[in-house]
Amino acid sequence: MVAGRGVAGFAALNVLGFGVSAPGRDTDRLIAGLGQGGYGPLKRAGRELRLPEGFSYRVIGIEGSPMADGNPTPPRHDGMAAFQLPNGNIRLIRNHEVDDPPAYNACIGDPSAAYDIGAAGGTTSLEVDPESREIVRDFVSLSGTWRNCAGGPTPWGSWLSCEEAFFGPESGFGEAHGYVFEVEAEQDGQGRPEPLVAMGRFVHEAVAVDPTTGIVYQTEDLFRSGFYRFLPNKPYSATERGDLRAGGRLQMLALTDRPKFDARKRQRVGRPAPATWVDIDFVDPQGGPDDRSVVFEQGFSRGGARFSRLEGCWYGDGCIYFVATDGGEKQFGQVWQYRPEGPNDGTLTLIFESPGERVLNRPDNVCVSPRGAVLVCEDGHARRQFVRGITPDGRIFDIAANVGDESELAGATFSPDGRTLFFNSQGNREKNTLAKTFAVWGPWHAGAV
């Protein structure tokens, strides 16, 4: 996104009467057509996807297919990021949101290198040829974690994988779950998991790292959830690699003039609000599921803001974009922007709120495209799920529709050169459809992506 366009472009929604500020208005004005940032109607591109005219796709990393390390590809593909490898190939690191009950040796990969042998989630790493978009090599890279939903890339070349969980020995697991784990992009096999305890134990969803400060922003997927930031003791900089294992300070977002702000409803698109941060003292509660809101309640008691089910989170144009899956008057989702403005202050702005499921149906994972569009993956439990984009002037357009099954789409991320969009379909166990990863390419220059 062009510097300075983010707030100015999205603020136009408030003037034009879009979003919740004008219920009942013609939603066609929310849609970006050809020449307005969109790519036109979607057409059948194959058995699995509908795409705009001129776009193609390839299926890779199908659930159950054998990987190079001899393990079958795990199910429930979710959050993902792409990195440049020294040999010119693409490294995809992919989460697996497996939430099966604890079981002995349920972990993927080598049990001796698993965090908890009873937990079946984790990550796989894929090396992909940038021209053919075919897998060169794939393997388990994180094992023994549980319900790895989203996460986020770091500017020093790693993936932060988040557990959307708050379970432990009281629920039959061998270890406590609800942490963030780091996976190196250049890692060539299964790593030794180490929970980043100082980042907090709560129902994590996604993270985004600001490369100018090294601050890590985090979302929480609960109906009473907070937006957090982690101030590392050893932050990333242009000359130093970040080290999140060295600890740091956890804080929760609060509006400067509106303590305990409720962001779920009655919000106006495009209206910026001054924000600040409150400290979380007790970051690692060790109870069972009844204590999953301990971190949130600390921040809320100090004036922190309340959201509903925060999910995707991504850095772009000096801002952090994050989504509330069921936020808004109609509960079909909100897209928020936080712009830092100094060490302790910033601005929070609602940039899009869905007026109905046909416009945007419960956004989940999110990323920012090379040219500034905010991309969102839907998880609306509808017959057809979409990947959609939001232009810098706040209009929405379709990128892809899942017609192969009714499962959620997740993990949208661009290759380092911007030519290929990767995303996942989680599969549907009830309908016996498999999780898979898609690589999509085409005339991105024709629209906002």
Tally of individual helices: 2
Q: What is the averaged pLDDT score?
A: 92
What helical percentage do the residues reach?
A: under 10%
Reported for the largest beta sheet, the result is: 9 strands, antiparallel
- Tell me the number of strands: 26
Going across the biggest sheet, name each strand in turn: 11-12-13-14-15-19-18-17-16
- What value does the Rg take, in angstroms? 20 Å
Low-confidence stretches: 1-25
User: Shape from CA axes?
Assistant: globular
Q: Kindly estimate the percentage of residues that lie in beta strands according to DSSP.
A: 35-45%
SSE order, as H and E?
A: HEEEEEEEEEEEEEEEHEEEEEEEEEEE
Please identify the structural class as seen in this structure: mainly beta
Distance between the termini: 10 Å
Describe this structure in words.
It contains two helices and 26 strands. With 449 residues, the chain is mainly β. The strands form five sheets. Strands 11-12-13-14-15-19-18-17-16 form a nine-stranded antiparallel sheet. It is globular. The relative contact order is 0.18. The model is unreliable at 1-25 (pLDDT under 50).
Topology:
Elements: H1 5-16, E1 42-44, E2 49-52, E3 56-60, E4 77-84, E5 90-96, E6 121-128, E7 135-145, E8 148-153, E9 158-163, E10 180-184, E11 204-209, E12 216-220, E13 227-232, E14 248-255, E15 273-280, H2 294-301, E16 310-316, E17 319-324, E18 334-340, E19 346-353, E20 363-368, E21 374-378, E22 385-390, E23 396-402, E24 409-414, E25 420-425, E26 436-441
Antiparallel strand pairs: 1-2, 2-23, 3-26, 4-5, 5-6, 6-7, 8-9, 9-10, 11-12, 12-13, 13-14, 14-15, 15-19, 16-17, 17-18, 18-19, 20-21, 21-22, 22-23, 24-25, 25-26
